[in-house]
Amino acid sequence: MPDDTKPRQPPEPQPRSVPPRPRVKLTIDDREVEVDAGTNLLEAARAIGVQIPHYCYHPRLSITASCRMCLVEASNSPKPVPACQMPATECLVVQTRSALVKEAQRATLEFLLLNHPVDCAVCDQAGECKLQDYYQEHDAQPSRLAGPKIQKEKRRVLGPLVTLDQERCILCTRCVRFMCEVAGEPQLGVFGRGSHEAIDTFPDKPLDSNYAGNTVDLCPVGALTNSDFRFTARAFFLTATPSVCTGCARGCSVWLDHFNGETYRYRPRENVAVNGPWMCDVGRLSYKPLVHDRALEVKIGRAGEGRTAEGREAARFAIEKLKPLAGSERLAFVASPTASVEDLLATFRLASEGLKLKRVFVSGRAADKGDRLLLREDRNPNRLGLDWVAQAFGLKVEPFERLVEEIDAERVKGVLAVGEDVPTDPKLVASLLLNLDPVIVLATNLGPVAGMGHVLLPSCPCSEDDGTFVNFEGHAQRFVAAYRTRGQSRPHWTWAATLLEELGVEVGWRSARDVFAELAPRVAQLAGFDWASAPGYLTHPRGLRTLPAAADARHGIHRERS
Amino acid sequence: MPYKVSNEKLTLREQAYLPEMIRGLGVTARHFLRNLFTRRDPAPEILDREGPCQITTVQYPEEKVEYPPGYRGLHRLVPREDGSPRCVACYMCATVCPAQCIYIEAGEYPADDPSAPNRVIERYPTKFVIDELRCIVCGFCVEACPKDAIRMDTGLHAVSSEERRAFMLEREALLRGPAVEHPSDPWRKREDSSAPEHGEKEAHRRISPRKNGG
Amino acid sequence: MRLRWGMILLVFVGLPALLFGLSAGFYALAALAEGLFTGGAGVVNVFTLLLVMVMVFSALLTLAERKWSAAMQDRIGPNRANLGPLRLGGLFHFVADALKMLFKEDFTPAGADKWLFRLAPALAFIPVFCLFAVVPVAPPVELFGETVSLQIANPDFGVLYVFAFASLAVFGTALAGWASNNKLALLGGVRATSQMISYEVALGLSLVGAIAAFSALTPAGGSSLRLEQMVESQSTWLWGGGGGFDFGVPAWGILLQPLGFVLFFAAAFAETKRAPFDMPEGESEIVGYFVEYSGMRFGLFMISEFVEIVVLSGVIASVFFGGYHLPFGEAWLQGHLGDFWFAALQGSVFWLKVIVLAWLQLAIRWTFPRFRYDQVQKLGWRILLPAGLFNVFATAALVLLDPSLRLLALFGLAQIALLVYLVGSGGKPAPAAPDERPVAVSDHDGVSA
Ligand code: SF4
Ligand code: SF4
Ligand code: FES
Fold first, then answer.
1. Other beta carbons within 10 Å of A63
2. How far is CA A316 from the centre of its chain?
């Protein structure tokens, strides 16, 4: 689903466009199927719902046919052929369930598992491992190996994010191919011969590509593990919730894997229009603020002298302080493009309708180096969304430097800040804020800036509420709440609603969806949107999904999406 | 004890009641005198009591009946010979536990850990907590463990305490009892997690007759 | 066989010695008091016999009931109460029980009749307690110039006094049941009353034979209703007697009146409301007339039950088992010990008989299941009453025929022989076929097949 919020637009062209090819008809398991000529048998079978086991094949990578797991019987060959490599031809008859194929699959698997250490108890992949799945399905017999197994290196730290267990590796070379073909940084290779063949990096060249994390997702077994995620949770406990990476302005579609109200990792979610099936390592690690240093208590008073309070009391206190400055240039409204469109809409309404402000100063994270593939220099997921919303409310967008100048010139007396991220050194900003009164901060995470707030209203990030980000290309993407809000933290729009109520404005928002419903009439770019035609998971019933992890982790999120 | 109930008609003598009453009294009196004047045998096998004293009471805190071999007592985390837990924090027990009373956090031993098993199996439980109050003593965790790392062979009841906290048995409290090692344990086959030197390729050697195999 | 020598010594040496010493001490106290003022002996006897002996005895019986029943059921019984390291096999449990009762909340239900509710325990306890007054514990003896005996009162109407006060106790029960304002308690009270009515008749009748028999041995001018006189009568010999060691068949009530003994025992047992006659209590069905009582008020009901046991044992010992008399060797012992020590010995003999009879009552309670209510009534009216009447007539006829009572004794012996035969003829049931016998199960009592 290329563009979640604009489903009625024509689909984007496929990135790897191929000239239209003639169609061919063939028979797979006694069923006729018509596909483009040259489509491999594996994809042709998938088109009619026949799953062929495979390891080395990946639709986005070149084909090596090295694992032999996908052997099928084809009428044009006396021996079983690898389905991943065999193009569909007219009148071909393919058997994927015959005794010969079953025996071939069983034998292949037995060989693949011959030297496998079977340390599932230790292995991170257990629960989403293709070896486990296929063993149950196709082999299911004890090892017949009589001698000792080949021993290889079990803990090879390839780079900052990837650790390799060579013993578990089945040499499908997906990782090697990915690094060459997609990342364009051929940092991995196959070394050694025969049984001693192993994946490795080149001497003194670590696997430090920004896309190295994708090799972990690609690895169909537990050989490549994510050093950050390693051993922290079992895959079968995790629930996957569709979300959006907040690492940069690309806003890659991701699965947010969580358990017990805690996020454990991001994994890319295929979205052809935005990120394809990949994501970068910077984004992969950007889940950390969802977990660490969260602001979870409503605070009245600055850090060190503050006290915890009830939300309503703090809101009343904040409004008391803000009211005298309402409508004046001396109150600066600061918003961060890390907040969702809904949150911005609600807070902008507070600023413009409630406090009669005319300008918004844009904070947010500082720009950093981008790359040619996915990572953008702008590290804020919603800058375009912020511009759209500001436009809708007629607020003038001012850069953060302007705010610094005005504070220096003592033209600003108070600050209402949405989000605690600032593009410069937060300590510096904190020292600027020191002389201002009032400073009201809606922050998801603790830090020097959040600590400056006379009132700190803890707000929750994208893991705890529904919302929308608009990436730099204008794709609006929806994320959904994975678990309940933590501590006293509430969505920004809830705080905005509370503050508006204190100002005497009733907004009547009950959920993020109600806030979103205000988007269409106000924001021109989102005018055509309506919920009824949105893709399935966007319209999921309100409330959290409490399915056991494996139940919903199996469809869609499985690493093997191809 | 399987008594047979007979519904036969009472004889006249039995209907007279008194003789049978006196015989009944005889039974009680016999027990009474035996138990009063002879010494109690404190051996706990209460079913085959042999001496004249028939008292089967076990004076609990001082005397204890030995539990049958399969008795599911308090859990323990089985240590390796070097004292580290056999557990690899695989969560199998926590997954199977119907009471969801096992909490585990996994960690990683450094590659140069002084203990050989820890160099070979880098994963271990940094935290392992069993809430004995929630445990229903089903023994599933023991069945599920692929590493023979959790057992219920301590022969102990759950401790008694006035605090709920005391029933949250932490790793330190659980790790006890005799060490267990199996020939198949991976650290018996290699020194650490690095690849061993292949002086001669044992992959070829192992095709030769069995005696060379391990 | 590993014997408990301590227990054997305690039972066969320590206990008689203790009772002997106590009896001697009581005599001495009574004599000293009598020396101070006339009637002093009676006052002291009230204290020594009633308050010391009967009360302590009853209190200990509460423990004994638990320990003895435990022994009968192959258990140990309560043994944890202690005074620091001093445990004495749980001897202090009765102290603990008493303390518990005293300190428990004394609860009066809202709808209860306050006065009657409070009166009932006293009414249940006092009559039973008074009963012991007429029981002769030891014979009169001359000491410090005074003639004293261990008996509180020695009225001519001793047996009638026993009947009268024994029936009074039911008032407490009936009132407790009624005043509690609880239907179960009321049921208990009603049951107690009807049971008392049924058994009162049999109780009276069962002793008529004994009275008739002993009247033949009572010297002219004596009253055969007087308990002390009954005891004295039983020191006469039916056959043999005299001579150096004084050996023969004494005229004990049990020999003359075995049927009377059984009837009296059954009827009196029913009056004590203990299992198997614990219909008024019946804890498995109606909980009992004291269901609303707690604390020491309940304690009074309980202790009166045990006092009743002691008193009943005393009366039975006096009427059927020769009271404080030994069955042989009395003259020889008296000659060797002197009057005073012999009397003290007789006192301890009496108490030993009481203990054995109390044990018998407990054993009965722990052997037989409770009767059904209709069975209780049937037993009273259809069996005890006719048998009692028969006993009266037979005894009267035999006493008239042979005033030396030998004929009556022969008749009694015949009854005993028949009973012994009947008891003996009830052999073990034939063992089942070997393949049906349960394996590895030892069957000590021959109850199972
Ligand atoms: S015995 Fe059963 S309930 Fe207890 S910890 Fe083990 S699996 Fe859980
Ligand atoms: S199943 Fe065994 S190895 Fe796995 S976490 Fe539990 S105790 Fe540890
Ligand atoms: S998937 Fe076809 S050979 Fe690997």
1. 16
2. 37
**Residue closest to C364 by CA, chosen among B32, B25, B34:** B25
In a domain, A491, yes or no: yes
Complex ipTM value: 0.84
**CA distances, A382 to each of A84, A188, A472, A525 (Å):** 40, 35, 8, 14
Is B144 close to ligand 1, i.e. is its CB under 6 Å away? no
Which pTM does this prediction carry?
A: 0.71
Among residues A238, A256, A290, the one where a domain terminates is: A290
Do A406 and A344 share a domain, yes or no? Answer: yes
- Asked if chain C contacts chain A via 3 or more Cβ pairs within 8 Å, the reply is no
**Residue A238 falls inside a structural domain:** yes
Interface of chain A toward chain B, CB-CB under 8 angstroms: 117, 119-122, 126, 146-148, 150-155, 166, 194-196, 198, 230-232, 234, 236-237
Q: How many whole angstroms separate alpha carbon C392 and alpha carbon C409? A: 14
Q: Which of A62, A70, A221 gets mutated to test ligand 3 (max ligand atoms within 8 A of its CB)?
A: A70
A253 and A304 belong to one structural domain: no
Query: A369: how many CB neighbours lie within 10 A of its CB?
Result: 10
A279 with A342, same domain: the answer is no
Contact B176, B76 (CB under 8 A): yes
A139 domain residue, yes or no = no
Grade residue C438 by pLDDT with cuts at 50, 70 and 90. very low
Same domain as A208, residue A155: yes
For residue A441, is it within any domain?
Answer: yes
Neighbours of C193 (CB within 10 A): 18
A120/A114 Cα distance (integer angstroms): 15
Length of chain A equals: 562
Instruction: List CB contacts (< 8 A) between C4 and chain B.
Output: 36-39
To the nearest whole angstrom, how far is the Cα of B64 from the nearest Cα of chain C? 15
Compute the distance from residue B134 Cα to the ligand 1 centre, in Å. 8
Using CA atoms, how far apart are residues A374 and A471, in angstroms rounded to an integer? 12
Q: Span C315-331, mean pLDDT? A: 86
Looking at the fold, whether A83 and A35 belong to one and the same domain comes out as yes
Q: Which two tokens stand for residue A23?
A: 């169609």
Average pLDDT of chain B, as a whole number: 84
Number of structural domains (chain A) is 3
Q: Mark whether A199 and A77 lie in a shared domain.
A: no
Q: How many angstroms separate the CA atoms of B97 and B150, rounded?
A: 12
Q: List Cα–Cα distances, C365 to A334, A529, C68, C72, in angstroms.
A: 91, 89, 11, 11
| Each residue's pLDDT tens digit, B66-103 | 788 888 999 999 999 999 999 999 999 998 998 888 99
User: CA-to-CA distance for A26 and A43, rounded, in angstroms?
Assistant: 13
Q: What is the pLDDT of residues C127-142, one digit of tens each?
A: 888 888 888 888 888 8
The answer, for B107 touching chain C at a CB cutoff of 8 Å, is no
Domain at A220, CATH number? 3.30.70.20
Structure-block tokens of residue B68: 């049958």
> Is the domain of A263 the same as that of A311?
no
Ligand 1 atom index nearest CA of B137:
1
Domain endpoint, select from A243, A267, A290:
A290
Q: How far does residue B124's CA lie from ligand 2's centre (Å)?
A: 9
Residue nearest atom 5 of ligand 2, based on CA coordinates: B89
Domain CATH number, residue A73 = 3.10.20.740
- Residue A293: left (phi > 0), alpha (psi -120 to 50), or beta? left
> Structural domain of residue A250, as residue ranges?
146-290
- The Cα–Cα gap between A273 and C103 comes to 84
Ligand 3 atom nearest A172 alpha carbon? 4
Candidates 1.10.10.10, 1.20.1050.10, 3.40.50.261, 3.30.70.3270; CATH matching B76-180: 3.30.70.3270
A324 and A267 fall within a common domain: no
Order across the sheet with B102-108: list the strands: B102-108, B123-131, B168-169
Integer Rg of chain C from CA:
23
